[in-house]
From TrEMBL:
<dbReference type="InterPro" id="IPR018222">
    <property type="entry name" value="Nuclear_transport_factor_2_euk"/>
</dbReference>
<protein>
    <recommendedName>
        <fullName>NTF2 domain-containing protein</fullName>
    </recommendedName>
</protein>
<dbReference type="InterPro" id="IPR045875">
    <property type="entry name" value="NTF2"/>
</dbReference>
<dbReference type="InterPro" id="IPR032710">
    <property type="entry name" value="NTF2-like_dom_sf"/>
</dbReference>
<dbReference type="GO" id="GO:0006913">
    <property type="term" value="P:nucleocytoplasmic transport"/>
</dbReference>
<feature type="domain" description="NTF2">
    <location>
        <begin position="7"/>
        <end position="116"/>
    </location>
</feature>
<dbReference type="Pfam" id="PF02136">
    <property type="entry name" value="NTF2"/>
</dbReference>
<feature type="domain" description="NTF2">
    <location>
        <begin position="133"/>
        <end position="247"/>
    </location>
</feature>
<dbReference type="InterPro" id="IPR002075">
    <property type="entry name" value="NTF2_dom"/>
</dbReference>
Amino acid sequence: MGDPNTVGKAFLEAYYAALDKNASNAGNFYQAASTLSFEGKTVNGQQAITQEFAGLGLPPNAQRRITATDAQNSCCGNGALLIFCTGEWMGHQYQEVFQLVPTGGSYYIHNCICRIGINTSNSFNVPAEAVELTKGFVQHYYSQYDGGLDSRAQLQSLYTNTSVVSIEGTTYTGTQNIMEKFKEMPIVQNDPNMLVDVHCVNGLDIVLIFLAGQLSIDGQNPMKFAQTFLIQKSGGSYIIGNQTFRLNYG
């Protein structure tokens, strides 16, 4: 329906204008099939989401500053988009990811995950199979990525020629381009104590994973980061369709 970056920018402007003026207005961007996770609490359906926003007690006309955005065509297909943004909101750093699905001449939010760092617990509201899948994927991915360049190269099997990865605002498409970029990235140590949110976008066939944590390079001071994965079932395993990574600068 349009360029992902153009659509993403227009969507964020409209959504945040409604949310920050009066939180209850944000419910208009959701439908019955929508899922929202805010600070670890997950609710489903437009009515419940609208009630959740109304009960948050957010002040009207809250101040917000977007510092970075990424927009990709989602591996879900059918015109769906993955939008990721970071910024400052009500005095807090926040990270938010949206899965937008076309409806009529516009989009609705099928999935939204937002973290502002007040609640530091992981509250999984998905089937146990999705929790185990996520834990296994995260453990495997970061152990390989942090294990050195030879170990990192083993992640190649998780990507395909249609995989899309955005790293600090630059997008790489396809296994070869992604792995070449990984060779250039420094060796890091990711703190295993991450905030994790999980949405089953299409049962266990497509799963959205959001992570917020800390990493260090060569033992230097830890830096905060946020990362999203949209993984999809392929045969008896999973591949990464979409991925974003951003450091959270104060």
